[in-house]
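Q: Structure for this?
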Amino acid sequence: MTISRMLICSAALSVLSAGAAQAEVTVLGWPGGPEEEALRAVAEIYNAKSDVAEEDKVELLFTSRDGFFDKLQVDLAAGSNAFDANLIATYSIGRYAPYMEPITLSGEASAVFGDTVLSTMQFDGAQYGVPTDLSLHFLYYRSDLIDALMADDAAKARYGDISEEYLGVRLEPKNPDEWTWQDFVANALYFSQSVNPDSPTRYGTVIQMKNLLFNMMVFHSWPRSFGANWMDDAGNITVDSEAYRNALETVKMLYDAGATPADSTSYEYAEANAAYSAGQVAAMVQWNAAAGELKGAQAETKTVAPPTGPEARFTHIHGLGLGLNAAAENKDGARAFLDWLSTEEAALAYARSGGAPGLAGETVVKLAEERPDLVQVGDYASNYGFVMNGGTSENALSVYEAQAKEFTGYWAGTQSLDDAMSNISATMNELLK
Amino acid sequence: MRLSSSQENAVLASPVVLFLLALLGFPVVLSVVYGFSEANFQALMSPTFVGLENFHLVLNDIGFWNAAWFSLRFAVITAFLECALGLFLAVYLAPLIRNHGWMVAVLIIPMIVAPAMMGLMYRLVLHEFAGPIPFYFYQWFGWSPSFLSAKTVFQTIIVVETLQWTPFAFLLFMAAYQAIPQEIREAASVDGTRPWRMFWKIELPQMLPTLFVAGFIRFIDGFRVFDNIYTLVGAGPGGSTTSMSIYIYETFLRRGEIGKAMAAAILLFLVAFLVLALGQYLMRRSQ
C-alpha cells in the first residue's frame, strides 16, 4: 500500500469515527465498582427502548478512579467533547459548573429521590445532575460486645468510672441507637486497652485521620450535631465555633488516649475498615458503602445512624450523579437520557443492578425486600442528611482539603487548636468569599 | 549530493532533537508562561501576564517553605544514607560479587519497583492489622511500633526511600571499586598497607568523583520526591510530609492555582540546576 493510500484510508476512518461519536450519547461514568455495573445495566435498558433513536443510544466511557476528578477537571476546562454527560459529585459541582449546563429532571424526580437528595446535585439554585448514588455515614458497632457490656454489672461500673475520669460525667452503657457523641466517646474509651486493659478489643474506635478530604466528610457529622456550619445565612464564615472546637478536641483526646490506633493519622477508608474487620475495634463511624465488607468480616456488626448531639442527629451526605457537559456534541440526546434516568423506572433498575441511589417514599418501599440497605440509606438521608452551607460551591473541594490539612495538623500535634482555627478561618474566607 | 560529516550528524540528530523539543520544550515553555501569568482552570486558555506576582505569592507562602524544608531534610538524609550504605555494600560484598555476579541482579531488585508501588506496598506491610511486620511484633513482643504515626512517619519514609535507592548508589560504587587497577592494591599490600588504610587512603580517593555524582543525583532525586510518599501517607497530618513536588501537585490540581504552582516548579527547577552546577564545579575541583 502506498503512503498516499494509507493517508486516504486513515482520513476516511477519522471521518467515520467522528461521525460515529456524534451519532450517540457518550456518558463518562464512575469506573470499577457497583456504580459501573448499575450504569451498564440501565444504559442497556435505555438503548433497548423502541422510542430511543439510533443516534441517541448511550455509549459508556470509563477511565480509572485514580485521579478521576483531577483528570475530569482538566478535560472539562479544556472543552473536551469526548463525552456528552459526565459524572459529578456533590462537593465538586461548583468547580465543574462553569463547564456544564443545568438540566431539567422528569416530573417524577422529586417523589423518587426526595428534595434532600436532589439538593446534593444543585448549585446556585440550578439542578446540574441526576443523583445516582448516595453516600452517608453509619455507626457500625459490635452488638456482641455491647450486649455483653450491658449484661455485666462490674463492666458497667468500670464504664462509669472511665466516663467520669475522662468526661467528668458518670455514664451508663446504652443501646447505640440512643447514643449521644458523649456515649460514643465513653464506649470508645472503655473498649480501648490503653484505658481499660481488660477490654476485649485493642481499640474502642478507629477514626480515619489522614490528611484527606473524604475523612473530613466522615468527621463532619460530629460537629454538625453540635450546630456547626461553614457559613451563616449572611455568608459569614462560622468555622471557628464551639461546635467545631468541641468535636476537634474530643477527637484529639481519643487519639492521645489511644482509643484509636496511633497510625490513624495515615488511615483512610481501607485502613479503617481493615482495623474494624480484624476484630480489634468496637465501634466506628464509616461510609454506608462499607456495610457489606464490615458485616461480612464481623458477623455481629449492626448499623444505626451516627450519634446525636445537642442540636440534632446528622449524617453528612454526598452524592454521585450524571450531568451535562457544556461542550457536548449531542446535547439533546444527553438531555433525553438524563431525563429518563431521573424516572422511577430507571432508579429502580439502577438499584436492582447494584447501585445505591438515595430513594424516597413509595419508590424505596418497592425495594424493601431486595435492598433493605437502601431503605436505611433513604431513611437517614431524609431525616438526618445535611450539606454544609457552601458545600456545593466552586471551592467546596478546596475547603475540605484545607480543613483536612489544618484539623489533622491539630490532631497530630503539629499545631495548636487556635492556630488551626485561625488558619482555616482565613482560608475559608478566601475560598468562599 | 554528498553531506559533510557535521551535516550528517545534524540530520541524524534532528529526530531526537525534534522529539525532545516537542515533548519537553513545549511543556517547559508553557510552564514558564503560566508561571508569569494569572492562570486557573477557568482561564486555562487565556492566562493574564502578572509579572513576578506568582513568585511573590510562593515565596510568601509558609506552606512552600515548609515543603522546601521537608524536601531539604529528606534529600540530605536519604542521599547520605544511600551513599553510605551503597559504599559499604560495594566494598564489603566485592569479593562475593566477583565470584557470584548474579547477586547484583538480586541486590538491585528494589530499584526496579515503581516508587508509587513501593509506597502502596509499605502501606500494606506496615498496617497494624493487615501488615506482616506489626503482626510479628505483636506475636513476639505483644506490642508494635506505629510506623506511620505522626511521630514516626518521617523516619519511616526515610527508611523506605533508602531501601529503594541504596542499590542505585551501590551499582555506581561497585563499578568504581572494580575499576581501581589491581596493581595499585598489590603494590600497597607489598608495602604492608593494612586493609582499612588501603580503603581510606587509596580506594576511597579513587572513588571520590563517583561518590560526588551519586550523592548529587540522589540529593536531587530526594529533593523532588513524590510518588512513594504520596501513596504511602499523602501530604501528612498538617502537611507534615509535603515535599516540594507534593506542594506543586496540590497547588495545581487541588487548589487550581496553576500560575502559583508553575512558579514553584520553576523555583524547584532552578534549585536542582544550581545543585547540579555546584556538583560539577566541586567534581572538577577535586579532579
